[in-house]
Design goal:
The chain has 380 residues and is an alpha+beta fold. It is 37% helix and 25% strand. It is built from eleven helices and 15 strands. The chain has an eleven-stranded mixed beta sheet. It has a four-stranded antiparallel beta sheet with strand order 1-3-4-7, with helices on both faces. Strand 11 (260-267) and strand 12 (270-279) form a beta hairpin. Helix 2 (34-42) runs antiparallel to helix 9. The chain is globular, with a radius of gyration of 21 Å.
């Protein structure tokens, strides 16, 4: 039986693709839904100013039905991605090549694992055809490479079968098997770790603050304005490049509703810190945080413990607390693998990257094993 015929296209605006058609393929993961991606574009957070130029991929069958899509961007830099290829770019450019532009299949500024190649499950050839369309686009646009970052393990496997290079990384997630309370979540931990967490929570909560969890329409324009200030302060202090524009946050709350979960610390009526999360079908995803006061353990309280409280109360199976941060292990967030895949046009660069990844993979896995020994949970 021959494979069905498909038509592949690229779109410079997410609005070119009807939201209902896109979301029918995206499922419940908020970071690849039409509303999230449109809010980034409509607020100016992606576009020419930030160097994330939309090139969203779409695949239609012979009848015109949309059977696969991917959030895709043409880029002239490697910022805002969290899967680092700066070394690849520098090596290629030292050898006389042009690493940029490249294509990035990703949820911008969001190191959140989940689907990236959004294909109809009843069309078995759609995902490979979408991947082929992306590599064809790489050549037609004169890009050095295509990178699919924070994809699923299954997506990586399909891409690897088509010759893409596989890469792994590490994040820290907290698993909720069905705890009834925060004390239940602490019970499997060693006594010393339980006491440490309780002390951290007590210290943060004794600083004269009131903690509230707000969702969707409960988050006022004034709160979003304050949150953007927290975001800017954190970015300016640590990274120096603030991509997300002030208008993005209220658009997010308006369009994703109760999937937007904001943990806020108030001093009286004034917000002094906040942590933004998005709720998916099987996880609470921590994204951005910031504070206007330096308060011991406030970051842990808002970003980790309040998130655990929310997951327990709403029976959410998992909390993903974002990129990096080995200190999360002591708070019950354990290392898990993340996945990406890379198609590289130049044979020499591809060989060099493949060799690098072969060397990197066992180092990452060995490090994850070492990190696992720091788990606060009692040995079974």
């Amino acid at each position: 039986m021959s494979a069905p015929e498909f038509t592949f296209s690229l779109h410079q605006h997410i609005g070119d693709i009807p939201p209902g058609e896109w979301n029918a393929l995206a499922g419940g993961n908020p970071f690849v839904r039409h509303e999230f991606l449109a809010a980034l574009e409509d607020s100016g957070s992606v576009g020419k100013r930030t160097g994330w130029l939309p090139q969203h991929a779409a695949l239609r069958d012979a009848a015109g039905r949309l059977v696969a899509v991917a959030p895709c961007y043409a880029k002239g830099h490697s910022y805002g991605e969290y899967v680092f290829d700066h070394g690849w770019a520098q090596a290629f450019e030292r050898a006389g090549g042009d690493y940029y532009p490249k294509l990035q299949v990703a949820s911008p500024f969001s190191p959140v694992p989940g689907p990236r190649l959004l294909a109809a499950p009843d069309v078995p050839h759609a995902l490979p055809a979408l991947a082929q369309g992306l590599t064809d686009a790489m050549e037609q646009l004169g890009c050095s490479s295509v990178h699919v970052t924070f994809c699923t393990e299954a997506e990586q496997a399909v891409l690897a079968q088509q010759g893409w290079l596989a890469r792994i990384g590490t994040q820290f997630h907290w698993a909720n098997p069905g705890y009834a309370s925060f004390d239940d979540a602490l019970a499997p931990m060693a006594s010393r770790k339980r006491k440490q967490i309780k002390r951290e929570r007590r210290d943060a909560q004794s600083a004269g603050l009131e903690f509230r969890t707000l969702r969707g329409a409960e988050i006022t324009p004034a709160l979003w304005k304050a949150f953007h200030g927290f975001y800017r302060a954190t970015v300016d202090k640590r990274w120096g490049t603030a991509y997300i524009q002030p208008g993005f946050w209220p658009l997010l709350g308006e369009r994703l509703g109760d999937a937007v979960v904001l943990m806020v610390a108030f001093r009286g009526t004034e917000p002094v810190a906040a942590a933004l999360n998005l709720l998916g079908p099987d996880a609470l995803h921590g994204r951005n945080w910031g504070a206007k006061e330096e308060i011991p353990f406030l970051h842990f309280e808002l970003c980790y413990y309040q998130a655990m409280d929310f997951a327990i109360a709403h029976q959410v199976p998992r909390v993903e607390a974002g990129a990096q941060g080995e200190h999360k292990i002591q708070r019950g967030y354990l290392p898990v693998e993340t996945y990406s895949a890379h198609a590289i046009a130049h044979p020499g660069l591809r060989r060099a990257v493949a060799q690098f990844l072969e060397q990197e993979r066992p180092v990452i896995r060995a490090h994850m094993c070492e990190l696992a020994t720091l788990s606060p949970f009692k040995a079974e």
